[in-house]
């Protein structure tokens, strides 16, 4: 085949793709479809998934040692979880460009409930090995969830809406901690002694976490999202080879912005381990549940505030980044 024929063949393919996309965009879309495929609906669904997964996990963890009597086993499980996430988040971010954000998000909903079930089993029957296995499944699920939920929450909407969408997404996540800790406090309000929470606490929280999978199936893939003005998301990803994605990932982690984020990320996750050990050693079950509740209330309000703040027009984006970095560092 001559080079001219190849060019003509490629041109015909491009014209065909453009024509098919134009025909698809010209099809009439019902009001329900526009709402179901809208960025706002998808961000709310992602927020509800965060509510059921890391939100409930935070409610348990901020109670101290996952509600257990001693922190040592849960500390080992948490170390396993975060150790897997160090590599898992990068792996799933590359995989998302191969199988799609939606299916990575679905995988992310499968790891949290087994960990909570392991805490319940150990609390009631003393099965310690299951807690470590649950920590591993939680690490895999969290890696997939963290690699996909942020991309959906920030990438589906316009730039002008990203602060608002971030507030909705993270506000709903912290609402999970708030409601989960409220349930814990109501079930353990009479327990004024140090020890472990009642095992019925876990049953309610496990049921909430099982809602994550059906919610994830409601999320629209990027190519089906319809923005308020009727436009589709731009198709920026053209090379989906694993080798190319690894090359881009390697270039990304060499940027100075990546290293500037490390202190913030360390500070963000420090509380997840330190606070739990402190609470379980010095406070009663009731006080631990109350601490988790007050932490959830503060975090929910803070996420809504920062979402509003980031959409303000008074500051440029570099200025907002510096203000946020200084505030978190202090």
TrEMBL record:
Which compartments is it annotated to reside in? Membrane
Record has Cytoplasm as a keyword: no
Q: Which residues cross the membrane?
A: 40-60, 72-96, 103-121, 127-147, 199-219, 258-283, 289-310
Composition skew (Basic and acidic residues), residue ranges: 10-19
User: GO cellular component terms?
Assistant: membrane
What GO terms are given for molecular function? transmembrane transporter activity
Query: What does the UniProt keyword field contain?
Result: Glycoprotein, Membrane, Transmembrane, Transmembrane helix
Membrane topology, as annotated: Multi-pass membrane protein
Q: Which residue ranges does the record annotate as region Disordered?
A: 1-22
**Keyword Ubl conjugation: yes or no?**
no
PANTHER family assigned to the protein according to its UniProt record, in alphabetical order: CINA C-TERMINAL DOMAIN-CONTAINING PROTEIN, ET TRANSLATION PRODUCT-RELATED
What this protein is called in its record is DUF895 domain membrane protein
Source organism per entry reads Fusarium oxysporum
Query: Which lineage?
Result: Eukaryota, Fungi, Dikarya, Ascomycota, Pezizomycotina
